[in-house]
Amino acid sequence: MLNFRNTNILFASLLVVFIALNFFMHFPVLLYVFTIVAYTLLLFHGSYFISSGFYIKVICSRQTENKVVAFSFDDGPAENYTLEILQVLKDTGVPAAFFCIGSKIPGNEPQLRTMHEQGHIIGNHSDSHHFWFDLFSWRKMLRDMQTMDERVKHVIGFTPKLFRPPYGVTNPNVKKAIITGSYIPIGWSLRSMDTVTTDEKKLFEKIKRNIKPGAIILFHDTSRTTLAILPELIRFVRGNGYQIIRLDKMINIEPYCQKKL
What we know:
Blueprint: H1 4-21, H2 29-48, E1 68-74, H3 82-92, E2 96-100, H4 109-117, E3 121-124, H5 138-156, E4 162-163, H6 172-180, E5 184-185, E6 190-191, H7 200-210, E7 215-220, H8 224-239, E8 243-244, H9 247-251
Parallel strand pairs: 1-2, 1-7, 1-8, 2-3, 4-5, 6-7
């Protein structure tokens, strides 16, 4: 399996071989260009496809034949839709994981408190969710993540242990911040794309087609479309023999760093 380390070894070895052979025969410049482009594409793929485990192993599903799935929601808490989604989950008895943005917590503390009181878990999705988060130094990333932790601890008394990188992007700095902060990186195996899909039927059909045992499904509690399909989707999932269980239970990992103060 390709990862950042063995990819660097492979391409460094290729360049050494090319340079050595160049003493005996002429190597076209295009060969070097092609090698650099191939290397860049591999890095891009590794960065933007979280399930690749290219830079760091990320939990994106559970390997099981049992028909269990976990629902997760990103980017809250939000003024719109978070409380409505929480009500649907309460009415249907569905537990979920909410990967929250720390800077959204001030003013939305009741939503965060409700998540916790209703038995959902709260994960770290950074404090800023900055567009250029993946270009931060690892120290700046870690400070950002720890700020989010403090906001959550202030409201519910627990410090998140699970971390989902903004936009699902990983790189060496993200890896360093995760390891230094003792976080557990969490991805997904089924991305709903509910932040760009406004067609309720298409969103519903996408989930139906791709659901599999052990899936971690990514939604956003900022999405009106997700709110609209959620009750019917839950009925469909259960009607097809699936059990919706809380993420930490499905992957058997403690979601918080310490006991409540």
